[in-house]
Specification:
This protein is of the alpha/beta class. It contains 10 helices and 13 strands. Among the domains are: 54-218, Rossmann fold; 246-274, no CATH class. A 6-stranded parallel beta sheet has the order 3-2-1-11-12-13, with helices on both faces. The protein has a 5-stranded parallel beta sheet with strand order 5-4-6-7-10, with helices on both faces. A two-stranded antiparallel sheet has the order 8-9.
Length: 286
């Protein structure tokens, strides 16, 4: 008999020691943190659980900690962070000694620091690192067609630091690096992805969970919590993890505030075939 669907953080905590919890849309919306979610994460840790925040933010972990502090996310609600930026730095390091063009906003400059490459104009580059749009409040992927044509002429591979297509910012959605990567692929370009739903970020997160527990974590102990169908939910399925779907993030407007946990779970199962949904709720609360 399949296990009962968990409807809150307390029930999830009783079943899974290790939580890999998404940040944007679950812990905060880019403008403010969600106190009830932070409390649920802290309660899980108080009960002996481990929380690894896992995010497609295209910045190294220390920069994300700074952002969380600015949004007043308490430090006692997580053990460690695994970011797409952490994984991206390893991908860029594979081009050691080469020339790389950086496509992204100034706030992502910490991603570049200390990497063994020369940052160059696109006309001289061997590869492109994309962390997002220069101005995600006003621009769209089509605004980059001219640049992408130049990249295609040089047969440049794009390393995408954030597979998210959109992210919740306050009460609206803004485009991310994933939407540029998708557009570049549609134009015929080659793309290498870091972050969810791809395996490297999950391997990093589970490694950090093992560091926190002091022993090798088995994936049967691990729960992936998130709001994004194509990143968090698909990532859980692709990496052999149970999933808790949080509907009040980027899919809030299309799903709405109604519907039982069973309804929400069925939406996730229908959208991402084969996913093991063990919990579903609008917000992660204890």
């Amino acid at each position: 008999m399949p296990e009962m669907l968990a409807k809150n953080g307390r029930e999830l905590s009783a079943r899974y020691q290790i939580w890999l919890c998404d940040i944007w849309g679950v812990v905060h919306n880019g403008v403010q943190c969600f106190p009830d979610t932070c409390k649920a994460l802290a309660n899980h840790r108080d009960d002996g659980g481990v929380v690894i925040l896992i995010t497609n933010a295209p910045r190294p972990s220390p920069a994300v900690v700074d952002q969380l502090n600015g949004l007043k996310v308490p430090g006692n609600c997580y053990d460690a962070i695994a970011t797409s930026g952490d994984v991206t730095r390893e991908l860029v390091s594979a081009h050691r000694g080469g020339k790389v063009f950086f496509l992204g906003p100034e706030r992502d400059f910490p991603l570049k620091e200390g990497l063994p490459v020369e940052w160059s104009p696109v006309a001289e580059a061997d590869a492109v690192l994309c962390s997002g749009l220069y101005d995600d409040k006003t621009e769209q992927p089509e605004d980059y067609d001219g640049l992408f044509e130049e990249m295609l002429d040089r047969n440049l591979k794009m390393i995408c630091a954030n597979p998210d297509v959109v992210v919740q910012f306050g009460d609206r959605l803004i485009p991310c690096a994933g939407t540029l990567a998708k557009h570049y692929e549609e134009m015929g370009g080659k793309v290498e992805m870091a972050g969810k739903p791809y395996p490297p970020i999950y391997e990093l997160a589970i490694s950090r969970a093992s560091d926190a527990t002091g022993y090798d974590v088995d994936r049967s102990q691990v729960l992936a919590i998130g709001d994004g169908m194509q990143t968090d939910i698909a990532g859980g399925r692709n990496n052999g993890l149970a999933v808790a779907f949080i509907s009040g993030g980027i899919h809030d407007e299309e799903i709405g505030t109604g519907g039982s946990p069973e309804d929400l779970a069925n939406i996730a199962r229908t959208t991402i075939e084969g996913v093991n949904v063990v919990g579903a709720m609008r917000k992660l609360e204890w």
